[in-house]
Amino acid sequence: MNSIKSNCEDTGMKDISIIDQLKSIQGKAGHPTAKDKKLQRLLMNVTSEVKSYAENQIDHLKKLSSIGVALSAEKDINKLLEMIVEVACDLCNADAATLYLYDTEDQSLRFEIMINKSLEIPISNHSDNHFKLPNVPLYIHDEPNYSNVSSYAAHTGRKINLADVSKIPQFPFHGIKLYDETTGYKTQSMLVIPMKDHESSLVGVLQVINALDLVTGEVVAFDQEYEDVIASLASQATVALSNVQLIQNLKNLFYSFIESIALAIDEKSPYTGQHIKRVVDLSMLIAESINQVSSGPLKDVWFDVEELEELRIATWMHDVGKIINPEHIIDKQKKLEVIMDRTELIEARFNIFEKELENEFLKKKLSLLESNDKDLDEIKKLEEAFNKERMTLLDDLDFIKSCNNSEEYMQDDKLSKLARVGKKVMEINQLKQPYLSDNEIERLSVRKGNLTQNERQIIESHASATFKITNRLPFPKYLVKVPEYASSHHEKIDGSGYPLGLKGSEIPLQSRIMAIADIFEALTARDRPYKKPMKLSQALKTLEKMKDENLIDASLHAIFIEKKLYVEYAKKELTAKQIDIEL
To answer: For an engineered disulfide with 512, which of 117, 262, 362, 553 has Cβ 3.0 to 4.6 Å away?
Structure first.
């Protein structure tokens, strides 16, 4: 609008409006004079400029409105920061822009992102670009830092419009000089806008650099009107940033809570530390590999960012139901363990039996020695019978202790012998005491592992408990399947799994992924008290057998083997002794 004012003053139009002048020209009869023609031309120029100015303002308002919508819609903070600096440049035709965010811990303005159109250099705090602007301290020796233009704006809350930074001795512009020296750029004009939220708390500082003349492209000072435009953008950006940061903080809190619960579950047992994290890592490795396949049954499957996050959360929570499982069952190392290892009770019982045998032997021997007819052969037979009976007793104890070992598979002949030994009795004070109680025989008769049927049901109940616990959490829409995925990781393809006995495609793919990760981790884990960690070759054979028996998903198993996903996991989690194949 400055050209309009200048042209009007040239024609003497100071006290009379342009419209009044036009009316006087249009009201005249005859041919217009040269002055009238000049006024007509001026009016046309003025009208054109007014229209252009109005359209430009409307365009700014539309841009600010659309930008406000775009800023509020963007949830990725890095993309949001990039959008802010790009829009700032566009709105005031600037060549470059820089954004700093307030670091509360460091009490500084942390450099986040910069764009430079003429150099075509995008730089951010998260990029691989080696050049990054230094952070700006807000305090030096506990005193407010007014020597940096950005910290000055942050402290004072003022907009700062500088036509030429080289002529402002108040600010040293160390970062800018370093940038200019490194890149060959020349920073001249600058507009600095502090960003504060609704509570007047500092969020950051936005700087736009080198305003360009729309016609000549030369670097000029920022027009006054741009201050309000960029201030309006900064205000909208502050709201958007605050919202995104709040959402991110809530996410971080939620994830930290989930990981804390997972850690508590793992730490509940000294033998399952890091189990959940390892299953998470392996599950995500499988899922990300599925996104890369271009053939086979899973070629059309693609997990987007939100679906990957949903799987990650579900995997972190897949064992949360174990919080209800008693520690003595989770940590059980031997079959006879309950609250304590009952092996010691059986050993004490057999010691009493041995003493009873010895007492009976000594009584009989003493009786023979006190008799008038000392039959030495009879005494010798008595001693041989005692030693034989004693050795049989001790052998029975050793056998019982061998049955207590959970690594031993109980064959039919061993179960039959256990039943015979368990039913033997020793008479003490005219009371018959069986070698083993019915409960002890039941526990020692477990064919594989160390859990009785009742204990196994207790352990398996964690899957149902996982669903009940996670289903109470108010997950956002894109995480709504977490309870289903987390609670189904023990389902088997043939329907023999738990808790619902789902089969085939009834089991969510995410749960099938978790199942393979959970099984492989358990097979190779070196911190389980009830078994030795498998060597890698044995674990892969076991996984192959489970695939052949229709227990795990064949297509997922194929990816696991063909992509050699076990290699990365083995290098990270297995001992050197376990890795018995070439990787």
So the answer is: 553
